[in-house]
Each structure stands twice: as C-alpha cells, then as structure tokens.
Amino acid sequence: MPYEPVIGLEVHAELLTKSKMFCGCAVVDSTAAPPNTVVCPVCAGMPGTLPVINERALELALRVAIALNCSVPEINVFARKNYFYPDLPKGYQISQYELPLAVNGWLDIETSNGSKRIRIRRVHLEEDTGKLFHHDPHDGLPEHSVVDLNRSGVPLLEIVTEPDMTSVEEAKAYATGLRALLRYLDVNSGDMEKGVIRFEANISVRPAGSAEYRTRTEVKNLNSFRAMERAVAYEIERQTKIWESGGTVTQQTMGWNETEGVTVPQRGKEHAHDYRYFPEPDLPPLVIDKAHLERIRAELPELPAAKRARFESEYGLSVYDANLLAEDRAIADYFERAISNQQSEIRNSKPIANWITGELFRLMNEAGQGIAEVRLTPGDLAALAGQVAEGAINLNTAKAVFEEMYHTGRGPQAIVAEKGLAQVSDRGEIEKLVDEVMAANPDQLATYLGGKAAVEQWFFGQVMRRLQGRGNPQVIRAALDAALGKKKRGA
Quick one: how far is CA 348 from the chain centroid? Predict the structure, then answer.
C-alpha cells in the first residue's frame, strides 16, 4: 500500500529589536557575546519582577501577521507556559495560547507541481529561552552542562501552519518562502547559523489518497534547510516502514542527529494541558488598535511574491530568474538599480539578470560575501553591460573585467582603457588576420575543404588568439565565412 506524508511546520523567529521582549536588556549576538553578560532580574526570572511588553516587537509581529494574510483579533492575551528545563530561568515561558496575536492566514508556495496555498493556523509572540552547552569531561571535571541566559527573553515569533504539506519539497518551499518574507519585512535576519530562525516539523504518514490523520511525531530545533529536509525525509521513511510492517507509530518528540542522519526520541507525547497554560497575571490583555494596524499595513514593502510577478511582467524575466532575483530584497534592489542606470537606448534587463545570477553570485559564494559587502556598484554593472551591448568589448573580455571590478571596485571604462581591452571590430584588420591564419595552416585548410566543416571553429580560435581575445566574434565569423567560401569556390 502506498503512503503519503502529512506535514505541518512550526517556525520560531527571533525579532530584530534592540531590547528583549519583557525587559530593557539589549539583544546581542548570542553566539559571540560573553555568556551571561546581558541579563537582568526580569529575564533571569527573579521573584517579584514585573514584565513590560516590548512595543517594537509587537509592531514587527503585526507586520508578519498582515503579510501572511492573517486575521488580527482586537484582543489577545499572554499566558504562562509552565515547564521545567535548565535554560528556562522562571520555570515558565511567557507565550500566547488561547488568544494569540493572529490566526487563519496563508502563504502561497511554488513547487515542481505548481502553486499551492499553505494555511497558517496561528502567529503568536513569546520569549526565547537561554542556551545550554554540554561539555565532556576535561581538566579533571566530570561531564557537565552550563547555561547562557543572554538569549533568555529575546522576542520570539512562532508561526504555525496547518498540516497542509505532503512532500519534503513542499516543506522546503514553505520554509524558504517564509524566511524570505521575514527578511523582506526586516523582522528577522534569516541567519540560520546563529539560530535566529528554527524549524519544528510535525510529521505523520497515511495511505495515499486518504483523508485521515494518523499519529504524528514532532522533530524539534532544525536550524538549517538541509537538516529540515533530511529529518523530514528520514521520519517519513521510518514511519512508513512501521505501518508497512503492521506496527504503530508512537506520538513523541524527536531530535535530529545530524552526524548519524537519524531522528532520536527525546520525550513522550505532549498535549497543551501538559504545559498547564494559564493567563499571565502580570500582563493585561493586549488591545490592537485598528488604525495602528492599518498604518502598519500601508507601510509594508513590496513582498516577494508580488516582486517576482512584477519582474516577470515588467522586465520579461523567466520564472527561474525572477525567483532568484526576488528571493533576497537587497539583491532585488541591486538588480533594479542596475536597470535604472542603463542608457535608455540600450536598456535590456536580461543581460543584467545574467550577470547577477551568474558571475556575481559565483564570486559572492567564493568570497563568502553578502550583497552589502560587494564593491561593484549597480551603476558600474550597467556600464559594463552597455559596453558589451555596444560592441566595445566582447563577452569573454567582459567577464575578466567584471572579476576585476568585483575585487577592486573600479569602473569598467578605466579597466578597459588601462589594459587595452577594447574590442577589435575593424573589418579590414580582421580579414587580413584571417588570410594570414589560413596561409600559415595549409593542412587544416585542406581538411576543411575536404568536407570537415568543424575546422572553421578552429580557424576562429586562431584568429581570436592573435587578437588576444579582443576580436568581435560577429566580424570574425563573417570574415571567415567569406574567405572560406571563396576558397571553396576556387577549389
């Protein structure tokens, strides 16, 4: 019997605020700051302290709720989620449960099977936990763990889907699409290596075509797309084998062992009542002003899906190119600035797109740089594309110029002039070189005249070599065609 997966995702995203969710402590890079240096009595969970809601965190959360097409109730309530863990100093987490910030939204994704709408069940605010570090025995110390509370209390947004995904591809498309959306909104950096966005996958399998929901497992704290893909794929295969063998899947929380490539049980089944939720007594209900909500809606930037569609219609880009360029807001802005810097009589979006998705992305990957660190300006990229379009330099020369521009930040005109790279298009000079090459290589000419047409490309290479790669390809080919045609007729 064939089986199909049923997948829902919970995403935890730290919000880009200057201070924590319920206190005035600064938000710092928890991977770099000295441990336990940004902690106060509130985020350390000291008795008698009172939390205060971070207004900026609320505003960023509302941006996400609106962008995800959610309904935002007028009143929402914070709750205490009680559980005991070493990185949770209060013994509970301030979160939301019965009355969350937003509900009933959706995000459209694109896969190889086309477009699909993934429903959003809820979006709610909460605080992050601290971070545990486990150490093996060393320097005479036994195996032990330590805790860093710098991250404790950082504003965290939880986004929960309905179980609408039925493949690993769909889960990845949703995760990447949501990450792009959060970055467009400037609410999260998307830096998964620093743990500022983490995924949890709820997975079950059922007979293909069935509408039933079978027992699910939850795989926690997946902090990369690769880990999420591998963990979801493994869990689908594991559960399928259990059902096929006549067994029963146990509801439990799983962890992902990246080294072994397997999911491992962490604890037994969980339900909401296991956490003993109750309203946070120190925080009043949060009332969302409708006028404020509309102001936030009006200030939203153009979102990834709209930008992709506009890139296709306005610039004539393929779906593939539009997706690549619109995935990152800074890349999209760079592309449009380069387009606007082109001369109107030669304006063409496709070459600019090709330079960015080809050479620029390659060099950025090699250097480990983001677009903000790139020295090559959009205006200089437009100027280089213009020189190619005008025939001032050929494409191979342009690639060498582009690489120097990337590393030095210099403009194309200065590099071309300094190194004498201007394209040779003089028909008389090229015809003379063609005649010299054919005269110097009688054996190859005889081979061509004997019917081996591919030798023409060899002649082309020889002429281009004499011009040090600066020859105009169209002029060289025209001269070759004429000269070889004349030889054929003479033969």
Answer: 26
Q: Which tokens belong to 444?
A: 């190859």
Q: What pLDDT, in 10s, does the model give residues 69-113? A: 999 999 999 999 998 888 888 999 999 999 999 999 999 999 999
DSSP 344: G
pLDDT at 27 over 70: yes
Q: What share of the chain is helix, strand, coil (3-state, %, to 5)?
A: 45, 20, 35
From CA 254, how far away is CA 268, in angstroms rounded?
Answer: 9
- Residue 79 buriedness (CB in 10 A; 0-12 / 13-18 / 19+): buried
CATH 1.10.10 residue ranges of the chain are 427-490
In angstroms, the CA 414 to CA 258 distance is: 50
Three-state secondary-structure class, residue 239 = helix
The amino acid occupying position 196 is V
CB 14 within 8 A of CB 197: yes
Residue 370 has a pLDDT of: 93
Per the rule left: phi > 0, alpha: psi between -120 and 50, beta: everything else, 262 is beta
Would you give the end-to-end CA distance of the chain in angstroms?
A: 72
pLDDT of 273 higher than 70: no
Please choose, from the candidates 182, 270, 268, 168, the residue with its C-alpha nearest in 3D space to the C-alpha of residue 227: 168
- The pLDDT, as a whole number, for residue 85 is 83
Pairing of strands 217-222, 252-257: parallel
Q: For the domain with range 427-490, which CATH number is right: 1.10.10, 2.40.160, 3.90.190, 1.20.58? A: 1.10.10
Beta strands in 15-113 (DSSP E): 75-76, 78-82, 92-96, 102-111
Task: Specify the 3-state DSSP secondary structure of 417.
Answer: helix
Two tokens, residue 451: 């019917």
* pLDDT score for 17: 97
